[in-house]
Amino acid sequence: MSQTKSAPGRLAGEIPYEGLVPCRAGLEDLVAQEMRDLGITVDRVGRRAVFFQSNKAGIYRMNMALRTGLNVLIPIRTFNARNYDMLYYQSRKTNWHKLFSVDKTIRIDVNGGSNTLNHSEYVVHRVKDGIVDTFRKLCDGVRPSINKRNPDVHVVVHLDETEVTLALDTSGAPLFKRGYRTRHGGAPLKEDLAAAILMLSEWNGNQPLLDPMCGSGTFLFEGWMIATRRAPNLDRCFAFQSHFDYDPALHEAEREKLRKAEMVTQPNLRLSGYERDAETQQIAREILVENFPEAAIHIEKRDFREPAPRTSGHFVVTNPPYGHRLGSPAQAEELHRDLGEFLKKRCPDSTAAVFSANRPALKSLDVQPDKVWTLYNGALEGRLLRFTV
Ligand SMILES: C[S@@+](CC[C@H](N)C(=O)[O-])C[C@H]1O[C@@H](n2cnc3c(N)ncnc32)[C@H](O)[C@@H]1O
């Protein structure tokens, strides 16, 4: 029989919770710092994940306030499974009925890797069978349904060869889904990556911010929330609300604390974006009006190469088209060159942060960065360059 670690001592609902926050490669230290700032005990910074201990209030706080983590996972149990029957057996042995009720819908996802359990759909299938059979036996044949699009409960199966960890995702939809971006232009940045770029390059709201190719405005909206200390997911729904141990009063109390920490006004805070595509600019403006009506954000339909007054002392942040999804590599190179010229001629005494996954094109900026980070936009490896102009 396979060995089980951590059962039943790690069942969600017990305090302290031990868990992990997965993130993009290269953002681990930033996520760990965000967690510490939220009063969470960081146990270990791993590869694409930060491990923590926290109480329930901390789980709620992280979900509402983390800008750069992807979700908050609580492992339920870890065991060895050398085949799919063992996987089913261990899933069947898990006290799912103590975690959520039979009327909740579920979704199961697999991450990590295994040479033995190498068919991810079958892994999902066997874990699902284990969950369903646990409930069927205890609930007169009634079982939870599967809902892939909008589940109440999200189970994550992490595989490390034959070591399997079953975890509850307390977030549900990933935390970059803040809810404000219901529409977008071509090639938008994910919200967690945009926030990370601003935080790594140390924009703190003291300099006016300009994105000369703002697309759907992600830097502007994330920047506004960073500068006003607004928790990005304050009013979102989370999977933890479907767990048995959900404490609505505690959730509300944590929300209220975060709300109080917000800075309602930030004198001289100004954020501007240019976007040359009329439809994309319109989308950005609609997001602004619907979600950030109070924000000092100005979005103009403009090509940054058009003549305009100089904008000195700004923080310029942008993510030009790489020439993969938008435009051709040659166009991307030309655009990066024009961006370099724009920064030098029109943005004196400014700091700039440019993120691009087109490295030859980045060279055409012709600048001396004071710091460079390697970051990933999905599978694309990119560089973030920060420099003074
Ligand atoms: C990669 S997207 C930026 C995505 C943006 N960061 C977001 O999250 O939505 C690049 C944007 O630059 C715009 N663009 C390209 N050339 C431009 C130019 N010369 N002036 C202004 N906008 C430009 C494109 O229309 C596109 O929306």
Compact summary:
The chain is of the alpha/beta class. It has ten helices and 15 strands. The protein has helices spanning 28-37, 56-65, 84-92, 120-138, 191-200, 218-227, 248-261, 278-291, 329-346, 359-363, and strands at residues 4-5, 17-22, 41-45, 49-54, 73-80, 106-113, 153-160, 163-169, 209-211, 271-275, 297-301, 315-318, 351-356, 371-377, 380-388.
Instruction: Give me the side-by-side strand order of the main sheet.
Output: 11-10-9-12-13-15-14
- How many independent structural domains? 2
Q: Bound compounds, please?
A: S-adenosylmethionine
In terms of structural class, how would the helical and strand content be classed? alpha/beta
Describe the structure.
With 389 residues, the chain is an alpha/beta fold. The chain has two domains: 4-169, VC0802-like, CATH 3.30.2130.30; 191-230 and 239-388, 3-Layer(aba) Sandwich (Rossmann fold), CATH 3.40.50. The protein is 31% helix and 23% strand. The chain contains ten helices and 15 strands. It has helices at residues 28-37, 56-65, 84-92, 120-138, 191-200, 218-227, 248-261, 278-291, 329-346, 359-363, and strands at residues 4-5, 17-22, 41-45, 49-54, 73-80, 106-113, 153-160, 163-169, 209-211, 271-275, 297-301, 315-318, 351-356, 371-377, 380-388. The strands form three sheets. A seven-stranded mixed beta sheet has the order 11-10-9-12-13-15-14. Strand 12, helix 9 (329-346) and strand 13 (351-356) form a beta-alpha-beta unit. The longest helix has 19 residues, at 120-138. The termini are far apart. Residues 1-14 have low confidence and may be disordered. The structure holds S-adenosylmethionine (SAM). S-adenosylmethionine binds next to helix 6 and strand 10. S-adenosylmethionine (SAM) is lined by residues 184-189, 194, 213-216, 218-219, 274-277, 280, 303-305, 319-321, 326, 335.
